[in-house]
Amino acid sequence: MKSAISLLLPVFSLALYGCQPPAPAAAPQGASGGSDLSAVMTARGLTDEDVLAAAKTWTPSGKHDDYVLFASGGQMGGLIAIGVPSMRILKYISVFETEPWQGYGYGGLSSKILKEGNQGGKDITWGDVHHPNLSETNGDYDGKYIFVNDKANARIAVVDLADFSTKQIIANPLIMSDHGGAFVTPNTDYVIESSQYAAPLGGGYAPLSDYNEKYRGAAMFWKFDKEKGRIDPSKSFAVELPPYMQDLSDAGKLASDGYVFIGSWNTERATGTGGDKSKPYLESGASQNDMDFLHIIDWKKAEKLVADGKTTTINGVKVISLETAAKEHVLTFVPEPKSPHGADVTPDGKFIVVGGKLDTHATLYDFAKIKDEMDKGEYASKDPYGVDVLDFAKSIKGQKEIGLGPLHSVFDDKGNVYTSVFLDSTVVKWNYLNLDQPTESIAVNYNIGHIAAAEGDTVSPDGHYVVAMNKMAEDRFTPVGPLLPQNFQLIDISGPTMKIIYDLPIPLGEPHYAQMIKADKLHTIPAYTPAGTNPYTNAVDPGAVKAGEERIERHGNKVDVYMSVIRSHFTPDYLELNQGDDVTLHVTSLEQAYDQTHGFTIDMYNVNLSMEPGKYEEVHFTADRAGVFPFYCTEFCSALHLEMEGYMLVKPKGA
Ligand code: K7E
Ligand code: CUA
Fold first, then answer.
1. Residue 7: is its pLDDT beyond 50?
2. Is the CB of 598 under 6 A from ligand 2?
């Protein structure tokens, strides 16, 4: 793709490098410097490099971005869609959290989706989103879905990219937290979610003294039904894992298709002090071993064992026991230094890059060597649970000195790896095809966590851009009190050296991971068509109405209201109810015009919907509070928007 950069550059270089002498400088006007470029540069203290960066990112009104970055929103519980290279925030997508603008979780159909995500009978209205992962076809992003995990509550969600909205939340009934997920296999057959903090599987109780025997991790393979666009729990399964803290994971592709790689830490199985000063804190207890274990899971073999019924069932989930996984070589280990973090498969699927976190190296595992050892049954040792462990030296292509705290790695189209280095606050570029090539490093601001590259996790990355997702902003922006935003830095990787060309403060949640897709792969719908389409079934809802069919049906104290919404009125526009009525509102937007959204809120009843064109919504509540409650449209939809209101009259009991 020809990027906007190459198109924009000549314009600016003319002005910058004087191919065409600038017009006589106009008198600077205020701080902006007026309309002459060099005067503006002087007034704002900008260098040539700053202006070049601006030219690479400035996207005029009406021009669209080349890429969309889907970033996790961290504790915000949702996703942030960001245009690249402009770094304009395009949308927040609510997933695990209620969000009023999208009418998400305020009485409408989305409230049911949120309810499906409740764990153990508790309402959970937030999430700690770590890893968004785009759906893939043949190892390439297909632009259809994005999956996210909630680390805090062990959940996975499915977001449909046709309307950028959450369609399904699956509460994992097996594990108490997750991290290695969401990652998809190359054709999105499975969405993978592996545990982080070990606990008794299924939510049971066991004292910490039973940690080694009773605490476990698990890798969940959620079967994705591509026709329906939903996870099918009945066809899903899990592999039981030892109580090492499983960390980031990635699915093999091409050469390594059929395998999943999961990092781990705390092979020491430390459990903290419990007030006993002779014992180490969990953090230091978990950092004693020089090596932890990269988990290698043969998921195609696991699939066969599940088909053959070689599973036990825990809380309704088919589980391949640790014993079976070890014996059948569904699970194999290879040592990895030292309390590692990221595990990233290279675009050709031939290698796995592991960031050392407490080591200064990135380790490059050679899958062909691993496969060869496994095929020959050449194992160096066994772990305490009987899992075979491969020889470290025999399994790697090499190691690369990266710096202090390498975490995550992404790729470009030339074999280059971009590794985030947390403690050094750098992005280090190196080449996995040629480990002798010197590294290049760029300082980022500050303490980078994840990193994302254009199409970077596919079989064919694009190059062009990398985004450094920095945990700390410190001095980068106007201070806003002790709680500071994170800082996303856009790095131009198209030239001979890396250049930072934009800083974007992220003011909500601490994002972890992101993926960047070509914008032209996304095919969003302009409206729900035909009018009355239920966004969760993609069909006209039986409760939807056409113009003229609006009505109120009462059977005893059960009231069904079939309402339509169109500029600038609701039909019906007042409702006469009795206190205690069991009310269902069936609301249809009759609009089909682009960007013609209405809102629907009932004052004091905590009901708030977003009525995009053509959308069907449904609200069920008890009219338990008597009185007069205005309902109105919350989007400034027309000149008569303020007039788009009505009344819900609830007659007191006995009146
Ligand atoms: Cu923050 Cu991917 Cu959860 Cu690293 S993880 S930063
Ligand atoms: Cu409809 Cu405002």
1. no
2. yes
